[in-house]
Amino acid sequence: MHASNLSRPSSPAGASWHALAPEAVLERIQSTPEGLSEEVGRQRLARYGPNVLHRENPNGPLRVLFRQVNNPLIWVLFGSAVLAIALGKVTDGLVVLAVVVLNTVIGFVQEFRAGKAIEALSRMVPEVVTVLRGGRKVTIPAPELVPGDVVLLASGDKVPADMRLIAMRNLQIEEAALTGESVPVMKQLRPVAEDAGLGDRSNLVFGGTLVTSGTGTAVVVATGAQTELGRISKMLGEATDLQTPLTKALASIGRYLTVAILLVSVLLLGVGLLRGYQVSDALMVAITLAVAAIPEGLPAIVTIALAIGVQRMAARRAVIRKLPAVETLGSTTVICSDKTGTLTRNEMTVQALWTPAGAWSVSGVGYEPRGRLLQGGVPVEEAPAAARELLRAGSLCNDCALQQRDGTWALTGDPTEGALLVAAEKAGLRVEELRACFTRVDAIPFESENQFMATLHGDTEGGRHIFLKGAPEAVLRRCARGDELLAGTVLAEVERMASAGMRVLAVAAKEAPPAFSKLEMEDVAGGFRLLGLQGMIDPPREEAIAAVRACHEAGIVVKMITGDHQRTAESIGQELGLGTAGAAVTGRQIAEMDDARLAEVVASTSVFARVAPEHKLRLVRALQSQRHVVAMTGDGVNDAPALKQANIGVAMGITGTAVSKEAADIVLTDDNFASIAAAVEEGRRVYDNLIKSLAFVLPTNLGLALILAFGVAFFPIEQVAGELRPLMPMLPTQLLWINLVATVALALPLAFEAKELNVMRRPPRSPTEPVLSRFVMVRTLVAAVLMAAGAIGLFLWEYASEAPRIGHEMALQEAQTMAVTTVILFQIFYMLMCRSLKGSIFKLGLFSNPTVFVGIGMLVLLQIGFIYLPFMQQVFGTAALGWEALGLSALVAAVILPVIGAEKAWRSRQERAASRDREPPRGARIGPRLPA
Hints:
By secondary structure, the protein is of the alpha+beta class. The strands form five sheets. The chain has a nine-stranded antiparallel sheet with strand order 13-12-11-10-20-19-18-17-16. Strands 8-26-25-24-9-21-23-22 form an eight-stranded mixed sheet, with helices on both faces. The protein is elongated. The model is unreliable at 1-14, 113-126 and 920-932 (pLDDT under 50). Helix 11 (298-315) packs antiparallel against helix 26 (674-714).
């Protein structure tokens, strides 16, 4: 059969391979049960290409470096430096260039973290695979696999491509990473509905998943980019890395500042020329203003503050991969979480037992056999005979093993069977002793066609027993006629357990002749006695329930998005307190909705079930279209595109796949949803402290700009050293000293401030809320005017009083040094007031942040060197000051304390009054403040 006659197969998501019988699949893909010939295999490889996932080259270092330089403020500084050097001010120009290089290096190091998610996807495909070629079993490299190849699968194999099963025995596939299914999926051969969701296509196996038990033979229907894994890879490439609220706000501030600085520089250039400045002096005035008004230290302050947040979050088990994610967490309005292993333990646990003699609940969660049988909520001292018989049969008709390793309980085998062992141990049965007393003679393994497992055992007295477990309907059909009368009652109990999200197994038993040694299908056709039912579930983490509650109190909406079944998702959602009164929305329903309808549904629904990767991506985008800041948590390959699209992607460190970790911004080292609440709290603290830093830095830049503008407009032009020169209150290098050394030394301690008391009891800020709020702008203006007035007044006073005595040149140096010192001392006092923007420093605790005083001490020592060390006097043009001048500078600078203190007290009274006016009804839920 020639390859040229074959139309190119499409992805299983686009073709209905799951709806066709095996024979029809082979015919459609032009293959046979013996596989392809070597010749056809080569032809198809040439036509379809290798079975690999292609990835685009990540951003190179030069491109990342250019992005750091391509910033309007950086261009202004760069132009100022070049102009200063051209005018002969080499020292000033080189200092400004050094600032440009410093900012560029900080930004480059921060951003050069190329995404490797698609590369991680490619590592999920195995290197070699066993296929049938012309009826012969051969091993070929996985990249050479083509549509139509017949592949042999065994336990432990990684599935190399998307395939339709044509033969199998007890085949179970671990698909949690792809579909979110919490336990291995039992495969079968029958066609399923054409519109079946990804998790319900039980006759397909998908590339990148793992064979946990059994064997199978399958025909390849999609390779490389056409597989489900390839579709995820493509979506991952299409998912957009969004800017964080802070980076967008800072970029906006940068653009406005650039325009304002250029306009004012041109204006001052014109004023200087009109007043008789030489062109070179007027240009230096414009350069000086640019240096004064640009907050050169701000990028370093933001980066270091975020890095401090990274360290704090790491201590709380959240590892940050992308620095701006620290701040984004603080503005998160919605958390979309996967269920399996994130909100739940990923450990199946029996919670309910039912027998014809009575019903019991089972306490305890996970694989540790710690718990009790309870009846009506009251612990049972000794398990009743009916419960013991049910649990004994469940642990004997079982291939799983339970061990304790290094203090941790773990399973070897199927999680569902493991749950039966743990339940038996909780009731006081010792599984190893039981298996020694009831030795297994033979077994009929679980087959998806049969829906049951049966085992034959011999006891110590020579008796023979057959135990049966499986789907309730399959077990009931094999029970004796008397037990069939129980069918209505049993099925009602099955329905009750299933409605609670439980997976239900029925268990039955019958006696066999003493010499019986071989178990055949006719031996299990009937005559069994129903022992009862066991209902199990993957329970939610206790700490996740508390974390969801904490998120709700913080005004953050939590939504669960899972690939698991609808009833299970609804049950877990109710236990977690997600507040979903109605049914969960399924992936099939999402697929039928347009974007407008989906936006309506996602706003009112908290639980989504049977969700495919593209559905998760659409859900995240629907929330973002409503201006939500979305955090997405997950651990599987299926989560990766949504993790990348979300404003903040959170992957699981223990169970998470390499793909999800590479796509995420944050990785939780303990796989615990509770760490999200801690990370959000830390993110809010970081943002609060960044606003404190911003409120501290900006008045300095505005104040310096006002000082220069006032000097150009009103200061006289003096004859200094035989030349007419404008009287400049500060030099460019002195401005950089203030902007970089002093400002950074004082702003950084603010990053260590303790969290505000209400940090997790207030709604998240609106994504559109400006960083430069009215409050910050008013505070900036008040502080800047005070700073400028104090520095100008002392400059003029010092220059006027000292010029006749020591000459204009020395008096100018002393006056400039005094003005700089006044600004520095002003910054010290103002920083203390910024430790809490709206509260009293004494309520906060004067010594609650020791790093504040470390920063002040370091700055005082540096300023002493700035004033008195000869080499620094030469670089910065400073002069030594007497005690009187220092004392006067401190006295003028301290004026900021009572002024800002009074402003805080007035603002606090205003806010308390406004809060009383808009106080919500008692018990009203706080939600995120979002724009209409």
